[in-house]
């Protein structure tokens, strides 16, 4: 929403729908209003790319269902402070990983999300070389306002790994959810359809 027009008395500009990781498949609509009046509307459909056979795993502890390729391995770990469900590609030539974890927040603010990002990044820095990360940007996670940060590092075999970490508080601010996605730089684009699902 723009409170004022900053593009001169005449001319044109553009608007867009985007997601750094690619738009999820589905139907999208865009309505443009000027001074409360609808002046333009459009719609589009993003079709899913080629996906392998998918399956899902439901976690009652995390209160979510994780969809993942059927030939991947899924694990869940729960203790008093943290719960994790993760899926990993067993193919050593195309390692990919994504998972969701939940923590009990200490402040009930976005600071809890940033603290978890920093803890994860600090662990990567200790174990791997070439670590770099981008500043977090606002992002919606499962319908909740949250944050997303991209990062990269070199694994023990010298392969460059790309990753993204997204986090949000649940609606009641009783839990912090963090989603991690990692794969080799060579597989990052080819795995986007799987990641989006």
* C-alpha geometry: globular
Helix content: 10-25%
Enumerate how many helices there are, as a single number: 3
**β-strand number:** 12
Distance between the termini: 28 Å
Radius of gyration over C-alpha positions, nearest whole angstrom? 19 Å
> What is the average of the pLDDT values?
83
Our estimate of the beta-strand percent is: over 45%
What does this structure look like?
With 197 residues, the chain is mainly beta. The protein has helices spanning 110-127, 185-188, 192-196; strands at residues 26-34, 37-46, 54-59, 64-69, 73-78, 82-88, 96-103, 129-133, 137-141, 144-154, 160-169, 176-184. It is built from 3 helices and 12 strands; from the N terminus they run E-E-E-E-E-E-E-H-E-E-E-E-E-H-H. Strands 5, 6, 7, 8, 9, 10, 11 and 12 form an 8-stranded antiparallel beta sheet that branches. A two-stranded antiparallel sheet has the order 1-2. The protein has a two-stranded antiparallel sheet with strand order 3-4. The two termini are 28 Å apart.
């Amino acid at each position: 929403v723009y409170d004022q027009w900053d593009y001169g008395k005449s001319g044109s500009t553009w608007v867009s729908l985007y997601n750094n990781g690619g738009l999820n498949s589905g139907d999208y609509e865009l309505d443009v209003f000027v001074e409360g009046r609808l002046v333009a509307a459009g719609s589009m459909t993003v079709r899913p790319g080629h996906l392998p056979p998918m399956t899902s795993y439901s976690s009652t502890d995390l209160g979510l269902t994780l969809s993942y390729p059927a030939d991947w391995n899924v694990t869940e770990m729960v203790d008093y402070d943290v719960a994790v469900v993760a899926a990993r590609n067993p193919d050593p030539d195309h390692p990919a990983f994504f998972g969701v974890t939940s923590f009990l927040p200490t402040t009930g603010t976005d600071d809890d999300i940033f603290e978890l990002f920093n803890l994860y990044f600090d662990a990567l820095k200790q174990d791997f070389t070439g670590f770099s990360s981008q500043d977090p940007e606002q992002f919606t996670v499962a319908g909740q306002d949250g944050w997303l940060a991209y990062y990269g590092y070199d694994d023990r075999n010298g392969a460059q790994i790309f990753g993204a970490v997204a986090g949000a508080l649940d609606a009641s601010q009783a839990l912090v959810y963090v989603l991690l996605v990692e794969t080799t730089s060579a597989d990052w684009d080819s795995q986007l359809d799987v990641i989006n699902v």
